[in-house]
Specification:
seven-stranded mixed beta sheet, Metallo-beta-lactamase, Chain A, homodimer, alpha/beta, 2 domains
């Protein structure tokens, strides 16, 4: 299971009480930070996320509302005495920005900070962990941008203890083989089929983050059938010309993508400050894709 | 009159609900921003300060807790359509940091942003406005740092309308000369002395900001008799060795400076997160300099 926690989901124009793009995805007892708008560490503290649970950071693009909170967070980790590695996946340029600030402050980053600089316009697998993997989703914005597709890997089968207890000869040493799908063979050669002894695991879950981008239907094959799609909807359809000009999407366009990709659920974000009532985004999208919700600071989506 | 508004007054280690160094000084219908720790634009909005009233920004030094909030603020001004000039006085290096971030975001700053890069180790007059002027106060920290001394200029004398009305021959055209201190000469040559027609103006006020710095008594002549001194007190005297090592001051040392400089009032700030009770800073300083107060987010000091 994954859990998405929204730290900020508004576009850049400053307002009180809302924060620019930032979110953490809880997966396998780790927090993955996706985008790092200003104030993200304030939000992390507010919602009581442990800083040290973050091992991987993904930055979509280098507009300030998606990364101005990062350098302060990295500094805080330093002051908090972090020792373990931190990996940042971001477009070329962020490394230079961060390193310049530490250099001018005459401060060493005293933990291993590893930058993975992105520049490809094709989807790439950029992280392959034991329990999940991350691919880029090439987006189209005013500057180079990627979305991120995070997929759990197949989980081991679950032991059906009720069935197993019927066979005293199955001892605990055999459990590993059962979990990976093998049948059990007794000493006299009888085969007890795996399906009798185990239950299917929960299907692996998937999450796709797409912000910022113009309406870009060629991402559909990449995000096909994901459990949750977060797609930017900076504008409503009434301002679709403005969306096109600024290379953003409308709520309707995000819903079109969700529908065509047959995702399970759509969450909209990156709302422009011109709209007072964000429910409008939901209403517009739901007319096309009913299972749509809107992001909000502090909201949690179980995947 | 000046008014000091504290936006943040804590040292860098992150905590909930407190902000790193940032403050605005209200003077002559202008807001002077002094230091710009992360989250300062959130604080500006919270306390309802108009962004456009800021024309001059002073950055003491390039440790992140004094400037990480700046680039987001500059971006917001851009999005809000600012047109008028903005002047930033900061150590060499900040211009490069800011310009790199706008360059990589492929974004133009669409208002005149003028950097005044500081590198001198002597006190300099860096701003001379109609009603006030600003000098640097060379500090000693782990990296190059300045405090700032902001002084109102002499104000015009105030018209004593009660006295003036006794002389019908004094018409409004003569008021300007009275304000600048000239006597009034009647048509028949009688001299009415200025002191009879005007009142002394309020004395010009002065404010000194000193953060971050080791105990540095050679600043005393520069800040002699100021109305308000904000001096960092990262530590209590019990940790004076740590203060020395990290080139910070203790509350007692700040009070020593205030006493020797014969300032009217001392405000302490830049508290380390190791202390739970910030009243201790006040108690320690007051034993040496009674008119001491401590800074707090949202607190306002009239000067």
């Amino acid at each position: 299971m994954m859990k998405l926690h929204i730290l900020g989901c508004h576009s850049a124009t400053p307002r009180s009480l809302v924060f620019p793009s930032s979110q953490v995805l809880e997966i396998d007892n780790e927090l993955i930070l996706i985008d790092a708008g200003e104030g993200m560490q304030i939000q992390l503290r507010k919602y009581k996320h442990k800083f040290n649970k973050i091992k991987h950071i993904f930055i979509s693009h280098l507009h300030g509302d998606h990364f101005f909170g990062l350098v302060g967070f990295l500094s805080s980790l330093r002051l908090l005495g972090r020792e373990k590695e931190l990996h940042i996946f971001a477009p070329v340029g962020l490394k230079e920005i961060i390193e310049l600030q530490f250099k001018i402050a005459q401060t060493d980053i005293n933990y291993p900070l590893i930058f993975h600089e992105l520049s490809s316009h094709d989807s790439q697998n950029i992280l392959d962990e034991k329990k999940f993997k991350v691919d880029t989703i090439p987006l189209k914005h005013r500057i180079y941008a990627n979305g991120f597709l995070i997929r759990e890997k197949e989980k081991p089968r679950k032991l059906n203890m009720e069935s197993i207890q019927k066979y005293p000869e199955i001892e605990t040493w055999a459990y590993h083989n059962l979990k990976v799908g093998k049948d059990f063979v007794t000493e006299n050669g009888t085969i007890i089929p795996n399906v009798e002894l185990t239950l299917a695991p929960l299907p692996p879950k998937s999450y796709a983050y797409c912000s910022d981008t113009i309406y870009k239907p060629d991402i559909i094959p990449l995000i096909k059938n994901v459990d949750l799609l977060y797609h930017e909807a900076t504008f409503l359809e009434e301002h679709k010309e403005l969306a096109k000009k600024t290379k953003h999407s409308t709520a309707k366009q995000a819903a079109d993508i969700a529908k065509q990709a047959e995702v399970k659920k759509l969450v909209l974000g990156h709302f422009s400050s011109r709209y007072k009532d964000e429910e409008q985004f939901k209403i517009e999208a739901q007319s096309i894709f009913p299972n749509t919700d809107i992001a909000k600071e502090g909201k949690v989506f179980e995947i």
